[in-house]
Amino acid sequence: xxxxxxxxxxxxxxxxxxxxxxxxxxxxxxxxxxxxxxxxxxxxxxxxxxxxxxxxxxxxxxxxxxxxxxxx
Length: 72
Prior knowledge:
- The protein has two helices and no strands.
- The protein has 72 residues and is mainly alpha-helical.
- It has one domain (20-70).
């Protein structure tokens, strides 16, 4: 019984992390111009997120994501 509960919780956490990863990848692809990123370019951020997954997504949010005023 405990193993099944652990599997469900682990699955939900994994699904949440996968959704977070996809969300950040889509967020990068929606930026219309490379000059709007705080650092890097769209290609660099896509590669960082794809190859480093959750760590890359967190790094993108911390240092690469454009300010809300720059996104439009």
